[in-house]
Specification:
Blueprint: E1 3-5, E2 15-16, H1 29-42, E3 53-59, H2 63-77, E4 85-91, E5 100-101, E6 106-109, E7 112-116, E8 126-128, H3 130-133, H4 142-148, E9 153-159, H5 165-175, E10 180-186, E11 189-190, H6 193-212, E12 216-225, E13 235-244
Parallel strand pairs: 1-8, 2-6, 3-10, 4-9, 4-10, 5-8, 7-9
Antiparallel strand pairs: 3-13, 5-9, 6-7, 11-13, 12-13
Helix pairs in contact: 1-2, 5-6
């Protein structure tokens, strides 16, 4: 039975606005386009059979912090032919249980609107727009994807620590095509032992997923920021990787 909880900010629109532009990334369309293009130009190019790209692991966060690492991943995405469908997974620590799909029809950024498409097998999962409104992780990826792909649709998915590899693996098997790429967004800020443990668990899940699907992991970029005197308890780890199969 389909469990639908569709709630939008204005009660009428099925469009999720660009809620984090000007905070996590630039709000001016021309400035944002120029900024992302330059990051992509400057990003190192990894050469491998791009048609084997099945998924990307990317960090979440502000473009000023994660932009260079993100560009290394999305430069690769732009070189894979015939990509039309992007499934974006973001882990959320509290407030949800299971896989939560967004109920909007479009997501907006300063670069335009992106269509949201739900797979037919979504009847086994929950549609709830509310937790997607206050989560920046997926939205901040979109300007890069809009820059490298001329036409695509997305399926935004929030997941929590209760979701095991079997659930994600089953979902991927049900929806995967030659035109689809899966993007797993990992936290780049770790400000507590609990956060570090949960993020490590998510990386373990992705490793198990890769192994079960015979995907090989290719690290595209990695950067570790040590704690500072101003923020002594915060450790940032940013990684981008391609999963090939």
């Amino acid at each position: 039975m389909l469990n639908i909880l569709e709630t939008n900010i204005d009660g009428r629109s099925k469009i999720r606005p660009a809620l984090f532009s000007g905070k996590f990334y630039l709000s001016n369309p021309e400035a944002l386009k120029t900024y992302t293009k330059q990051l992509l130009i400057d990003a190192p190019l990894r050469v491998f059979p791009y048609d084997k790209l099945r998924a990307l692991i990317v960090p979440e966060g502000q473009h000023t912090i994660c932009g260079k690492i993100l560009a290394t991943a999305y430069k690769i995405l732009g070189l894979k032919k015939y990509v039309r469908r992007i499934f974006l997974f973001s882990k959320r620590r509290v407030g949800i249980e299971g896989l939560i799909f967004d109920g909007n029809h479009f997501w907006e950024t300063p670069l335009g609107s992106v269509e949201v498409v739900h797979p037919k097998i979504i009847s086994n999962y929950i549609i709830d727009s509310r937790p997607h409104f206050d989560s920046p992780a997926i939205e901040t990826q979109l300007p890069f994807i809009q820059t490298v792909l001329p036409r695509f649709s997305i399926t935004p998915i929030l997941t929590d620590k209760t979701v095991g590899v079997e659930v994600i693996n089953s979902f991927i098997s049900s929806v995967s095509t030659k035109e689809s790429v899966f993007i797993f967004i990992t936290s780049s800020s770790q400000n507590s032992n609990r956060a570090i443990t949960e993020d490590n668990n998510f990386f373990d899940l992705l490793s198990e997923l890769s192994s079960s699907r015979n995907w090989n992991k290719l690290t595209l970029g990695e950067e570790n920021r040590i704690p500072t005197s101003k923020f002594p308890h915060i450790k940032e780890s940013q990684q981008a990787a391609a999963l090939l199969g």
